[in-house]
Design a protein that fits this description.
It contains 4 helices and 8 strands, in the order αβαβαββββββα. The protein is of the alpha+beta class and 156 residues long. The protein folds into 2 domains: 81 residues, YhbY-like (Translation Initiation Factor IF3, 2-Layer Sandwich), CATH 3.30.110; 41 residues, no CATH class. Strands 1-2-4-3 form a 4-stranded mixed sheet, with helices on both faces. The protein has a two-stranded antiparallel sheet with strand order 5-6. The longest helix has 15 residues.
């Protein structure tokens, strides 16, 4: 089971306040399918809420402990029928083709002109034949090819 400091737990509680329950445990209890769904939720979100339908307080506390130990998650909060769980998200590295084809997202950070305000951050989709200059402008990596016949006709 993952351990959290009181400060971390407090910050996670505040962050979880606006969340909706991702998984709901019904009268069947903690089945392997429910455990799998909780694990998928933790993998994709990191911090989730689980709603338990049932009036037995001891059973809910036992479920909470079981989930935390089986999935190596940290218990954040157990309030009423809601359980808040946290596990750091696993960063998945996506393999990209070496060719650089297609669109890709690039984050451009430009400092403010006065230097006292926040820098502007923009996310831009660029094509495979484009690049971002040091000034943050998007330019074509290579000039577009033109046919020799068209350029010869244009110069007459």
């Amino acid at each position: 089971m993952l351990k959290l400091t009181p400060v971390e737990r407090s910050a996670l509680r505040a962050e979880a306040h606006a969340l909706k329950p991702v998984v709901m445990i019904g009268e069947a209890g903690l089945t392997p399918a429910v455990i799998k769904e909780i694990e998928l939720g933790l993998d994709s979100h990191g911090l989730i809420k689980v709603r338990v339908f049932g009036d037995d307080r001891e059973a809910r506390a036992e479920m909470y402990d079981t989930i935390c130990t089986q999935l190596d998650a940290a218990p954040v909060q157990h309030i009423g029928k809601l359980l808040v769980l946290y596990r750091p998200k696993v960063e998945v590295v996506k393999e990209r083709s070496s060719k650089g084809k297609g669109l890709r997202e690039v984050t451009i950070v430009k400092p403010s002109p006065s230097g006292t305000k926040r820098p502007t951050v923009t996310k831009v989709m660029i094509k495979g034949n484009e690049r971002v200059t040091e000034g943050g402008n998007v330019k074509r990596a290579k000039p577009r090819q033109t046919s020799a016949k068209k350029s010869a006709l244009g110069s007459k």
